[in-house]
Write a structure and sequence with these properties.
- By secondary structure, the chain is α/β, with parallel strands linked by helices.
- It folds into two domains: 3-114 and 353-364, Enolase-like, domain 1 (2-Layer Sandwich); 119-352, TIM Barrel, CATH 3.20.20.
- Helix content is 39%, strand content 25%.
- The protein contains 14 helices and 17 strands.
- It has helices at residues 51-54, 58-72, 80-90, 95-112, 117-120, 139-151, 165-179, 195-205, 225-231, 245-253, 264-267, 270-282, 296-308, 354-358, and strands at residues 3-20, 23-37, 42-48, 128-129, 132-134, 156-160, 184-188, 210-214, 236-238, 259-262, 286-289, 312-315, 329-331, 334-336, 339-341, 350-352, 362-364.
- The strands form four sheets. An eight-stranded parallel beta sheet has the order 5-6-7-8-9-10-11-12.
- Helix 7 links the parallel strand 6 and strand 7.
- The chain starts with a strand and ends with a strand.
- The relative contact order is 0.16.
- The structure holds magnesium ion.
- The site of magnesium ion (MG) has 6 residues, from loops.
- Magnesium ion binds next to loops.
Amino acid sequence: MKITHTDIYKFSIPMDPFTIATGTSYFAQNIFLRIHTDSGIYGVGEGCAVSFITGETQETCYVMAKDFAQLWKDKDPLEIEARLSELNSFTAFNSTIKSAFDMALYDISAKNANLPLYAFLGGTKRTLESDITVGIDAPEVMAEKATEFRKSGAGIIKVKLGKKASDDIERIKQIRQAVGEEMVLRVDANQGWTYDDALKVLRAISEYNIEFCEQPMRRFNDHLMPDMHKHSPIPIMADESVFDHHDAERLIRTKGCRYVNIKFAKSGGFHEALKVNEVCRANQIACMMGGMLESRVALTAFAHFASALPNIRFYDMDTCLIGHKIDPVTGGVKYDKYNLTIPDGIGIGADADDDFLQTCEKITV
Ligand code: MG
């Protein structure tokens, strides 16, 4: 089989305005690909650029994608390892755009094997219960949002923290009071605390029954993670500290975390994510499947991966539910409240909607 050409789209999904340090965005900065082959099979891939985590924007992904597509022209898409080494030899980092190309290769391989992707990966189909995220706001606003989610059927809420320690404690206190004792609460500090603030908050909120805390400190503080893990009454999950399996090995060997959050935008897709999961599994570290602001195309790929691997025990797969104004996807995972069901088709089983793609900037290489 040979790759004939690749369609690259700026897959900008309109969103409720969201503000980050560099300004306000009105759309998710995604890239969508179709890698076509001479067999008639094509593979789909999607990546979502979040610049303050991976250093990529939609624009850098688009530029890099043209080079990647050129590199793969006339090559065999079934030789996944060889194709990905070409990208890694060509450029370091750029994990988000790499993940879109990796995803398309896995889609092609599974379609060629006439299998759903979870089966191609050697796994079975499971229903996955996602959490739903409450963004940072005033404590009472967050408590109200959490209550709305509970009424809409959510069983697990992920709360964004990482600001002023005393406010973060108040946030969790009010949210727990609002949602009652049954609701599972997990928190994510997104690298926002110092070591001292992290321990202060984690000790104070431990009475509110918190499942785990993601990434308390900046990744340059990884050397402090073993102490954090030892002294925190709440289990620590590494997110921004673990991009690839080398990061996972380093952190696990020093006993720096209890869990790891896997995201394709960090790992560069399935191939490296499988390695991250394997390092974790071998060390009894359970993983979470997470994402950025992807549509249901990438979310369906994540669901296949999570379903196939029993060591993936937590699911943060709400990215299309938080702020996306449209759902430009055909097929793919279905949400029943917050439970995801994987489609029965071969490959990923999701595609971008052609009418929506007509509106997107596109180049074919
Ligand atoms: Mg996180």
